[in-house]
Each structure stands twice: as structure tokens, then as C-alpha cells.
Amino acid sequence: MSRELLVLRHAKSAWDTDASSDFERPLSKRGRKAAPRMGRWIRENDLQPDFVLASTALRVRQTVHALLPELDREPPVVWEDTIYEASIAELLTLLSACPPDHRRVLLVGHNPGLESLVAHLSGRAHLFPTAALAHFTLPSNWSTLMEGAGSLDALIRPRELED
Question: Going by fewer Cβ within 10 Å, which terminus of the chain is more open, N or C?
Fold first, then answer.
């Protein structure tokens, strides 16, 4: 049985805030519009995740909370601190620990880690701006995510979905 991975970069964050750190930067107005738009795209393309693995940074939490109501049902979410500045090796380790009964996982985090992961799985580099979503079909289990192992089925950027 194949697996599917949805990789979502957090929506656009605001820079002109009084956030005490990069970790606490909130979404911008554009980001608050893009996150539900990506959730609708997931629903409309029948890609309901079984499980969400997400960074604990504020902009990711806000992205996930804006996206989830657009889905048919809210999947369980695991908030993971290490996604914030994760290397590709750390992301692959997190994914390899996904329970085998999860067929479709949504990973929500940050660049440069996510852009590196998308390049690793697809075998080539892709621009991965804020709120971009990559959909992969993968080998039969989460622990075999080798370079070029994924079939990149879609790479959607929010500007492509604007009303």
C-alpha cells in the first residue's frame, strides 16, 4: 500500500509586529487568506490527511488552525518543536516515525527544511514559497523515504488559486 505526503509551508507571516522572536511571528493578512484556500484545495482534491505533523511556531499554528476547518474532518495533530529549524535528516526521521496506519500525512513547517525535503523526495529542486503545498505518492512505508523515492503529484502555490 502506498503512502501519501502533503508538505505545506506555513502561510505568509508578518514582519512588522512586536513579536519577541522569529518563532512568535504571526500570519500576515495575505497569510490568513492563503491558509484556508490551501485547506479547500486539499478537500476539493480528496486529499484528507489522516494525521498532521506541525511545527509549534506561531505562524504554523495559525496556518493549521485556519486550514483545518476547510477539511471534511479534523485529523489528529501532533505539534513538534523540532520542525522549526529542522534539517532534511530531522524531517525524514520524524516522518519515519509516523504510525504505519497513517496513509496520508500532512507535514506543516518552514523553509529551508521543507524545500530541501521536496527536492529530496522529487529528485529535483522546486521553489517552495509560503503556503505552497506539495503532494507526493511514496513507497509503502514511512521509513523508506530515499532520494527520488516520491512521485510529485502536485505542487500548488496559493497565487495559483486566487479568486
Answer: C
